[in-house]
Amino acid sequence: MTRNAHLACLAVAGALVLGLSAPAEAGRGGSFAKIRAAAQHGNPDAIVAELERAERIPCSSECMTFVMGLLEHESHYVRDGAAWWFARRPAQKVEVAERALSLLVTGNTFQVQSAADTLARVGHPRMIPELAAALTREGIGEDGRAAVARAIGELGHRSGNAALTAAMSDPSPLVRRAAVEAWSHILRQQGAAPIAALVADPDLTVRRAAAGVAGRFREASARAALEQLLASDPDPAARRNAAWALGRIGDSASRDVLDRAVDDESPLVRMTARAALRQLR
Amino acid sequence: MRPALRALAIPMFVLAAACGSDGGQGPLDEVDAIVFIERPARTEGLGDIFQYQSYVPGARLLKLSPPAADGEVSVLCCDGMAEFAEIDIIDFDLSFDARSIVFSGKLSADQRYGLFVLDVASGQVEQLPTDPDADYVYPTSLPGDRILFASNAVVEEGAPQFEDEYERGTTLQLGSIARDGSDMQLYSRNLSHRITSTVMHTGEVLFTQWDHLNRMNAGHLLRMNPDGTRVREAFGKENTGVTNSYYKAIEAAPGRIIAIGSSRDMTFQSGTILDIRLGEAYEAEGGEIWADKDMSEVNASYRILTAQVPLGDEPSSPTVGRYYSAYPLNAREYPDLLVSWSDGPVQSDANGGGAPPPDFDLYLYDSERGTRLPLYRGEGTWEINPMPLVAREAPPTIPAAGGNGFSNDALLIGSMNVHESSLGNLPEGEIYGVRVVEGFSGEEGVGEDFGLTEAEGAATLGIARVQADGSWAALVPANIPIHQIAIDKYGLGVRNEPIWITGRPGESRFCGGCHESRTSTTIIEPGITDAIAIGPDDLMSAVPRFERVTTSYANPVGIPWDQALQPIFDAKCVSCHDGTPGAANKSFTITDPETGESQTFTFDLRGTAVEFTIGDEMLSGYSASHLSLLGPSMLLMDPEVDLEITGDMPTYVIPENARESILIQVLNPPRQFPTPDMGDRAFGGVTGHSEEVGNPLTAEEHRLLVEMVDNGGQFYSRENSPGLNFGN
Questions:
Q1: What DSSP string describes A169-192?
Q2: Residue A6 sits at the chain B interface (C-beta within 8 Å)
Q3: What is the CATH number of the domain that holds B260?
Q4: Number of structural domains, chain B?
Q5: pLDDT at residue B635 is higher than 60
Q6: Chain B partners within 8 Å of A89 (Cβ)
Q7: What average pLDDT is seen over chain A?
Q8: Is residue B490 part of a domain?
């Protein structure tokens, strides 16, 4: 056996002993060195795992600066993990939130996107006006605006409804869809009336999302548009979502269109239509 | 069709060992074909075992027939179907008659994982009717033509789904639906994920639950009835386990489970193969080893079938690798298994960032010899979750339990005799009642932290009175995580086990005692106990989630630190405990041994924002009072925190342990129940510190402090949740 093979065996044996001696806890054992090493290797899963493990470690200025840099990592997963890491540190959370608010005003599209992702974790509902303003800022691309809409949803406060409603008229389907999805994240949300118009959106991903959210909130004002979607949309996933939503709304006036959908050509639609028929009043 | 074995580069010694078995009947001789998933390889999105939203288009369900390296591979689903052109498939299960397959697939990046039923003979597929705005994964066939699944859909209409504290994912919970698409049911909710399930010979379901309450943070195996009732522990909690998490469990024989065990994260949802015995093991007919006698967590044991695979999150070694899944083909002492295995480190740090992903392929594994016989390898794909395409005997259908007799909507909980406990019997009369606490996560507008504590959100639903025979009963809201604390007449916790329980509407969840033997009977009949004869206490059983808040501090629900406790400190404590060093305000100093920097903090019960930094980090953004009472203990909890903490300030609050917390011992709380009596004190005498210094606390104030500690020491509750209360 070579020396390397011997070492490998010893490492495995050691790992086995370690594993046996400390079986139960996770979320411990992190360090700045491990975060930095994971970032150098570059796998987002590993970086976030090390951030999670280091949730309580004291952090030097070098460490703080390093993790701050991860707030602008190319991976959304890493940006979100770094923002969570700061959110668990209430004092730094304030500083990070202020920095993000500043970037909403001065940053380019990617910086606005990163700032919004940060605020989704460390923000407060009182910051919604600044996020709303970023939605209409000149020169901010759709990735930035969509992230802002998502952040408003994550803050979960009904004072964000006006901004989300406005974002549903954004020229970009990416932003409109993000606004629709964010709508359902608002706590104690009442209805989904602004969504109804998007059931007939020209973009199929927006139509799919709008139908789903209209169904979630049993939005009766969307019924006619949903029936139209189910009857004639070329996209089977949109038709499926429309059938599901009509079942949730439960109006017997939808029976005819659901009856026809039971024989839809797509396997995505038929069983959902049958289930929806059972829900009609 | 194509050859099963392509470009195999298997080490010769593995092949030789696999072929060198005893020459008798092979474990796959009776199997005409196996089914498995071919999933595009990936380096991201499977960072911990509970992640379920990884999406890379191009997955297929394949059949290998015969199940051998020279077998033919055919596509079961879903070539040639436009809707499925970009599908990713996470898991599947076969019906008991082997005529259909239910699988979980995601059709495009903007859609969610849904459930699909494939007719094996015709190749026809139908999607089951699920919420298009939610994910449905890990399907399992149930007897009675139903399908169990895990989903992030929410059983409570209008409530947000719990978010996991660490991975921030929307949690998965369990539910079921009839195979014809009717009768969707979502089961009760744990505070974190519930995943991967299997049906046992009894008809019960075994699944993995992420348990997190204060410091506990691990994936354990639990059992339940297939309708989501009678959830209880099976393996991993009571020092029976060997690693952090157990998942992808499949029953090999009655009471005998094959599962993957690993660290919670970093291992691509793969690990070592464990042979878990849920009860006493014995040799049954045909030489099989069964383990269904006295199935109870305390009687459970395990055997590692892949000895060299790391149990932690470190990289594995060449030729050792890690196992993604294992399907038992028999129940010999050392069973033969269909496995999905990858060579190499199979670890997030080592695979990724430019390094190639793991490469899971299919093998027949002889666990006695530790040898792998290769069956199939794809190019740039993972071959996972193989299982024989054969009919299986369906387990019995467990009939739905009758209602609890008191409410069709609420959950009935209770104990037959709280004084019976495996942790040491409690003296008669010591327990006044049981405080029932609801748990919730930060998704209710709190954010990512409830304060300088690891405890989750808490809302006291009420206190159920223990009756003369030691029994108690309460009606509580169904479908939510519930924590029970047996308390004495001073309101102090006597037993505070770190577990959440859950139950469905109309269900009855009675335990025999207080952490009593799990194998003894707990069937409860009306009138069998005083508590049932008298009738259960109603603890907010019909109060909607967002209305379960404190309306009077005489009966606290949530205890918002800044609103409920700080006024007490301001009125009665800060005249002395104001941060001025001295006998009334002890200090601690934290020193960073690396830099030599240090800072001293002095006890201070004011509500001012604290400015306490070590190096460049401020350790608390909460109030000085919160840091004074909870901060030092929380810092000391993590052995990895390399700081020297010196000084004479003790740990005043031990979250979830008021009885042993110095704060409470010094204050010496009065009797609270059945009526307050300031002359009867928990730790003797007739006074406490507040009387001694001339600022006596009221009974109500004592109670708030005691419950704050026993419930976890949170700063935030629903009452001061920023998201729920801002602008109101």
A1: T-S-HHHHHHHHHHHTTSTT----
A2: no
A3: 2.120.10.30
A4: 2
A5: no
A6: 617-618, 621
A7: 89
A8: no
Q: How much is the average pLDDT of B563-570?
A: 98
Q: Tell me how many domains chain A contains.
A: 1
CB contact under 8 A, B132 and A41: no
* Number of other residues whose CB lies within 10 A of the CB of residue B392: 14
Give the C-alpha separation, B668 to B99, whole Å: 68
Q: With the CA atoms of B299, B302, B303 and B306 taken in that order, what torsion angle do they form, in degrees rounded to the nearest 10?
A: 180
Compare all CA atoms of chain A with the CA of B617 and give the residue at the minimum distance: A59
- Confidence check: pLDDT of A25 > 50: no
pLDDT of B400 reads 85
Do A128 and A147 meet the contact criterion of CB atoms below 8 Å apart?
no
Out of B116, B217, B310, whose CB is closest to A19?
B310
Domain boundary among B388, B415, B435: B388
Mean pLDDT of B256-265: 95
Residue B642: is its pLDDT beyond 70?
no
CB contact under 8 A, A43 and B44: yes
Q: What is the pTM of this model?
A: 0.91
User: Taking a contact as any Cβ pair under 8 Å apart, which residues of chain B between 103 and 142 contact chain A?
Assistant: 107-108, 110-111, 116, 124-129, 131-133
The pLDDT > 70 percentage for chain B reads: 89
Q: Identify from B162, B305, B638 which residue to disrupt to test chain A contact, counting A C-beta atoms within 10 A and taking the largest count.
A: B638
Q: Which of B243, B320, B621 sits opposite A90 (nearest CB)?
A: B621
Task: Say yes or no: A275 contacts chain B, CB-CB below 8 A.
Answer: yes
**Higher confidence at residue B525 or residue A70?**
A70
| Residues of the domain holding B354 | 2-388
B699-720: string of b/e by CB count within 10 Å (b at 16+)?
bebbbbbbbbbbbbbbbbbbbb
Q: Tell me: the pLDDT tens digits for B159-203?
A: 889 888 777 889 999 999 999 999 999 999 998 899 988 999 999
CA dist B580 and B586 (Å) reads: 9
Which ranges of B576-672 does DSSP label H, i.e. alpha helix? 624-637, 662-667
Does a structural domain hold residue B427? no
pLDDT tens digits, B64-111: 999 999 999 999 999 989 999 999 999 999 999 999 999 999 999 999
User: In CATH, what number is assigned to the domain containing residue A265?
Assistant: 1.25.10.10
pLDDT beyond 90 at B561: yes
Please report the pLDDT score of residue B634 as a whole number: 58
Q: What is the ipTM of this complex?
A: 0.91
Tell me if A54 is assigned to some domain.
no
Q: Do B621 and A91 touch (CB under 8 A)?
A: yes
Predicted confidence (pLDDT) per residue in B122-151, tens digit: 999 999 999 999 999 999 999 999 999 999
Burial class (CB in 10 A: 0-12, 13-18, 19+), B452: buried
Total CB pairs under 8 A between chain A and B: 257
Among B339, B371, B388, which residue terminates a domain?
Answer: B388
Q: CB of B380 within 8 Å of any CB in chain A?
A: no
Chain-chain contact of A275 with B129 (C-beta, under 8 angstroms)? yes
Taking the CA of residue A76 and the nearest CA in chain B, the distance in Å comes to: 12
What's the token pair of residue B557? 């629900």
Tell me whether residue B459 is in a domain: no
Q: Which domain holds residue A213?
A: 200-281
A231: in domain: yes
- pLDDT for residue B422: 55
Task: Name the CA dihedral angle for B63, B66, B67, B70, rounded to a multiple of 10 degrees.
Answer: -100
pLDDT value of position B163: 86
**Quick check: A267 and B181 CB within 8 A?**
no
> Is residue B500 in some structural domain?
no
What residues contact B582, with CB distance under 8 A and at least 6 apart?
none
**A64 contacts in B (CB within 8 Å)?**
616-617
Question: What are the distances in angstroms from CA A118 to CA A78, A95, B169?
Answer: 11, 11, 16
Which of A:71-130 have CB within 8 Å of B?
Answer: 75, 77, 80-81, 84, 87-94, 121-122, 124-126
